[in-house]
Amino acid sequence: MFGFLFAGAALAGSVFVNGVNVDALRNQTFKNVTAVTLDADGNVIIDAPGYEIQVVAPADTTTASVGTTSPAGGTTAGATTPAPSAVPANQWWLVTEDNGSNGHVITVYINDALVRTVPSGQPQLIADLASFLRPGTNRVRVESQSSGATGGTFYIYLGSGHNESGTVVMDPPQVQFGVGPTREGPYLREYELKIPG
């Protein structure tokens, strides 16, 4: 059981869901959220697997819309959770390692479903992948967009591991993706993640 304590002044930051600013979003409930982080700037960062966030800016207004990613890669209306998985929880993980990078945004898809969009400079993300995986071969696509990158290398790892009293210990990851300060523009890599069945 996790609890959150808010004391003192109101937060001055923004709200991000899967790396996208959703300050304009209203009347939305997210189910199966894996983490809520308050960063040093007062931003609220919500990790909600299975949700695809799109920012639409018609004329002078900016709105955020929420949908879940369908197996075909499209977006379905409403806010529902990923389909139940035959893969047990707490065995397959996505973990970030940011060595002081700036200027990168990495997006991870598994079997054409959006898993996460993670920008540089965020706290470490550790996410359970069970709801996105199926026994056998899973297709993983990792895309990055880099602009004016500085600092160290930003890594994304996917693989098996186990939870030891709140600490995830990963086996050597099947997927390792990294972008550094010399990377500019878009970059795409595809992998296979094999899950015993």
Describe this structure in words.
There is one protein chain. This protein starts with 14 loop residues before the first strand and ends with a strand. Strands 8, 11, 13, 14 and 15 form a five-stranded antiparallel β-sheet that branches. Strands 2-1-4-3 form a four-stranded mixed β-sheet, with no helix packed on it. With about 200 residues, the protein is mainly beta. It has strands at about 15, 20, 35-40, 45, 50-55, 65-70, 75, 90-100, 100-110, 115-120, 125-130, 135-150, 155-165, 165-170, 175-180, 185-195. The protein has two domains: about 15-75, no CATH class; about 90-195, no CATH class. Residues about 1-10, about 55-65 and about 70-85 have low confidence and may be disordered. It is built from no helices and 16 strands.
Distance between the termini: 30 Å
Largest sheet: 5 strands, antiparallel
Count the domains. Answer: 2
Structural class: mainly beta
State the helicity in percent bands: under 10%
Order of helices and strands: EEEEEEEEEEEEEEEE
How many DSSP-defined strands?
16
Proportion of β residues? over 45%
The residue ranges in which pLDDT falls below 50 over 5 or more consecutive positions are 1-11, 56-66, 68-84
Average pLDDT confidence is 77
Supply the number of helical segments: 0
The radius of gyration over CA amounts to 17 Å
How would you describe the shape? globular
